[in-house]
Amino acid sequence: MAFNIRALARPCLGLMELSMAPRTQIMRSLDLPKDYVNLRLRASLSSSARSGVPGINSNVNTIASVLEKWESKFTDEGISEPKDSIRNIVLHVMGGQSFSELDRHAQVEMTQEELQETDRLCECRLARMPVQYIIGEWEFRDMRLKMIPPVFIPRPETEELVSLGLSCLPHGNECDNCSISADCHVNVLEVGSGCGAVSLGLMKGHPKVYCTAVDQSTTACKLTQENAIAHGFAKRVNVIHAKLAEDGTFNRPLGHDTFDLIISNPPYVPSKDMLVLQPEIKLYEDLRALDGGVDGLRLIKPLIQVAGKLLRHKAKLLMEVDPSHPEAIQKWISEEAQAHLCLRYEATHQDFSHKARYVQLVKVKKA
């Protein structure tokens, strides 16, 4: 039986309010002990410990059986990554921290409340809602970040973008202006912060980094701020609700005249390719964070113009792009009309699938 995805999607968006509440709040709403959520997977429960409890059938209510049932249903309905989807959902419901806990406690019997919650969240997955939105959080570089629709979900490529960004930053006495080993800050501009993953990853990986995180979405700005507070980076990030125009200007001041790195995962999907995106993306994520216009360069070119104006000498611009873009960007940046930007195309980096995914430009002196 095929599901009506759009019909299922509507109620799931409303139901997420409870799902994304703190786990202790959910447990209180179910009238369970305060520390219940932490005990369920941490206690070494045997199936005999729950035998004879009314309403419990160990053949169908164990973690293992629930995982098997929903993985099969997800597979039948064409849900991507069916095994990881249900494991993440059950782990969230049971209050666990890693998949290994599910394996160790596979014969633990789930309560009726846990089964109902699992079913509710799985119905949302059948509606193609991304797991990150369903459980309301996601692991990123050893940080558990809050996630809410429609803010863009960080991908594995985003983690690589952070790693490349860290390699572009000055360390020790590498800064041209002064020694950053003292009180000097490394100023980073992130354009399109989303949930704040990139800025937080850079601050976590470099103790001197201070970020200016810009996004055109008020929801994204709020989420970036919340995640920064949750992980202790609130004093090192300035979140600005601003929009980058196609002439390379922002509609609000950024607070700095120059930056040591400008980094971005801008909208780069060519408009024609938007039609073939997965339902998980088309139904739930902010398409403004994806649609890069006819050639995918609609905001990439303005970003390059921003870099020409705001990067200090030898500082870098690092962007995630479509694999078709590196050649087009190299050609565009070499044209005489862009000579005033004083930028040199420095490198193309591949992602984990060996696709040309990142471009790196450097600020140079005027000839």
UniProtKB/TrEMBL annotation:
Keywords annotated in UniProt: Methyltransferase, S-adenosyl-L-methionine, Transferase
Molecular function, one GO term: nucleic acid binding
A biological process from GO: methylation
InterPro entries: DNA_methylase_N6_adenine_CS, HemK-like, N5-glutamine_MTase, PrmC_N, SAM-dependent_MTases_sf, Small_mtfrase_dom
Residue intervals of the Methyltransferase small domain: 185-272
GO cellular component, one term: mitochondrion
Domain of life, per lineage: Eukaryota
Protein name as it appears in the record: peptide chain release factor N(5)-glutamine methyltransferase
Gene that encodes the chain: LOC117649025
